[in-house]
Amino acid sequence: MDVVLQIALIIFPAGAVLLTTIFFLRKETNKEVRIAQIELKKQRQEYFLPNRVEAYQRALLLMERIHPGSLVMRLHNAGLPAKALQAEFLKAIREEYDHNVAQQLFISPLAWQMVKDSKEETIKIINIAGNQMQATSTGIDLSSKIFEIVAEIGQLPTEITVEYLKKELQELF
Fold first, then answer.
1. What angle do CA 116, 52, 122 make, to 5 degrees?
2. Which helix (H) or strand (E) covers residue 28, if one does?
3. Residue 33 to residue 54: CA distance in whole angstroms
4. Which of 9, 100, 118, 154 is deepest in the core (most CB within 10 A)?
């Protein structure tokens, strides 16, 4: 019985020391892992934040450039027939969108969906105006009809998206 007691007196304290050592080593390792995770997050933010800000800027610019009023002012050509000008408007919208499609990597999925929806709604406005034109209608007629439709709508999808993008960008800071 003495031998068992002596072994127990040696093993129990050694086990307690071992368990205490394991506890503290794990705690220290977890602390190091958390520090490494924080550092990695900081590095990602340093890299991605400028890209995210630029993506929001470009998405805002896209919305401004495909706004029906901006399109008319930028591309208006009184000498073109209405259908030709309509095609120019649609081409410009698609080119602007295609040029900025990679920005979806850096903005939220909801924001990008709003950008896509705004593009589609703007195309609908242009097409509605174009479908109301006669074969002899001019670019002036189409531009006037677009402005008329825009006035009836009130707040356009591009304007709503601009507000949302600005709000989301503010939340980054």
1. 20
2. helix 2-66
3. 31
4. 118
Q: Please tell me whether residue 81 adopts helix, strand or coil conformation.
A: strand
Cβ-contact 58, 100 below 8 angstroms: yes
Contact yes or no for 126/68 (Cβ under 8 A): yes
The DSSP 8-state label assigned to residue 77 in this structure reads: -
Cβ contacts of residue 126 below 8 Å, gap of 6+?
Answer: 68, 71, 86, 89, 90, 93, 146
How far apart, in whole angstroms, are the C-alpha atoms of residue 8 and residue 21?
20
pTM for this prediction: 0.73
CB contact at 8 A, 112 and 104: yes
Q: What is the pLDDT of residues 99-125, one digit of tens each?
A: 999 998 889 999 999 999 999 999 999
pLDDT, tens digit (0-9, with 9 covering 90-100), for 31-78: 777 877 778 777 767 777 788 889 999 999 999 999 999 999 999 888
Helix and strand element counts for the chain (H, E)? 6, 0
**Distance of CA 24 to CAs 13, 19, 21, 30, 139, Å?**
16, 9, 5, 10, 78
